[in-house]
């Protein structure tokens, strides 16, 4: 009887987690080995399921306490199937003024879901490529941070907009 109760509980728990994320269309992470080199580009290949519906796009990051900056600069490039390219330089706040890292998580690893674009319609059929690289600089220095510490994973997420 106890085994059946545990099994039912686990099934309910798994279904709860799956149903809580019904807006997800695409959600993938790629690991960053040790340090994120300034020339290292994290790429995602995407085949959107719909060419009419608008989607919300996010850059997802996992970072540890080794991340020592209060913000993060990223260069995000989207390459359309027919060659059109959109390139954005984005800034995100990563810590409170006190130094406490933002994001979710109970351990020293924090997850950050960062807005990229809202209401995007993938109106070209075919494969899209999203490239992400960091563009961090230290105050007063011309050259960028060569190896960024504390970022463990970079992800990209596409969601259906929440209907209210």
TrEMBL record:
- Membrane-spanning parts: none
Q: Per its record, how is this protein called by name? A: Gliding motility lipoprotein GldH
User: Which range is the signal sequence, renumbered to this chain?
Assistant: 1-20
Tell me the domain of life: Bacteria
UniProt entry keywords in alphabetical sequence: Lipoprotein, Signal
Pfam families given in the database record: GldH_lipo (PF14109)
């Amino acid at each position: 009887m106890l085994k059946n109760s545990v099994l039912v509980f686990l099934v309910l728990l798994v279904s709860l987690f799956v149903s809580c994320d019904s807006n997800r269309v695409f959600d993938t992470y790629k690991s960053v080995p040790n340090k994120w080199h300034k020339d290292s580009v994290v790429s995602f290949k995407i085949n959107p399921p719909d060419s009419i519906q608008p989607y919300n796009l996010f850059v997802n990051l996992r970072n540890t306490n080794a991340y020592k900056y209060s913000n993060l600069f990223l260069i995000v490039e989207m390459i359309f199937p027919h060659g059109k390219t959109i390139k954005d330089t984005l800034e995100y706040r990563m810590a409170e003024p006190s130094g406490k890292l933002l994001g979710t998580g109970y351990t020293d690893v924090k997850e950050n879901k960062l807005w990229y674009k809202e209401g995007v319609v993938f109106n070209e059929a075919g494969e899209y490529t999203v490239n992400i690289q960091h563009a961090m600089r230290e105050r007063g220095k011309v050259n960028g941070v060569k190896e960024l510490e504390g970022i463990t994973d970079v992800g990209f997420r596409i969601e259906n907009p929440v209907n209210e």
